[in-house]
Amino acid sequence: MTRLSKNAKILKTIIKAIQDKKGEHIVSLDLRKIHEAVSDFFIICQASSTTQVKAIADEIEHQVKEETGENPYRHEGQQAAQWILIDYVNVVVHIMQPETRKFYRLEEMWSDAPMTEHNL
Predict the structure, then answer these.
(1) Cβ-based neighbours of 77, under 8 Å, separated by 6 or more
(2) CB 63 within 8 A of CB 16
(3) Which residues, in sequence order, are CB contacts of 75 under 8 Å at separation 6+?
(4) Would you give the DSSP letter of residue 100?
(5) Which residue from 34, 39, 36 is spatially nearest to 114, judged by alpha carbons?
(6) Of 27, 63, 113, 119, which has the fewest beta carbons less than 10 angstroms from its beta carbon?
(7) Residues 94 and 29: beta-carbon distance below 8 Å
């Protein structure tokens, strides 16, 4: 069995945490070949309420700490919970409400990055 790289393990753990809390429209963007990208991967998902956005964020931080020992470098948006960003340096997670996601269109902004869908 091959050992997962640290980034791959964080990525896999984040996706599982989002799925465990019923996050929707989960995609990952591989930004490694894009020079101006701020990280290697973006994971984007949506949730239908501020409560669910917060629950997903909490679950991600809990599972990543349990599985990999990593704490986020920083996180933003906990107050309003329209869009919570969790930054693990090489992997950045965006948990958004549908209206916020439609408005910012991150997938379009990074459309030259390979995208993978992770829906159940």
Answers:
(1) 83, 84, 85
(2) yes
(3) 57, 61, 84, 85, 86, 87
(4) H
(5) 34
(6) 119
(7) no
> What are the pLDDT digits (tens) for 41-88?
999 999 999 999 999 999 999 999 999 999 999 999 978 889 999 999
Task: Return the residue matching tokens 């965006």.
Answer: 94
- The structure tokens listed for 65 are 């700490």
Place of tokens 């996050």: 23
Compute CA 87 distance to the chain's CA centroid, rounded to the nearest angstrom.
9
Cut 0.90: pTM above it: yes
Structure tokens at 6: 């640290």
**Cα 120 to Cα 23: distance, rounded to the nearest angstrom:** 10
Dist. CA 103–CA 107, nearest whole Å: 11
104 is written with which tokens? 């910012």
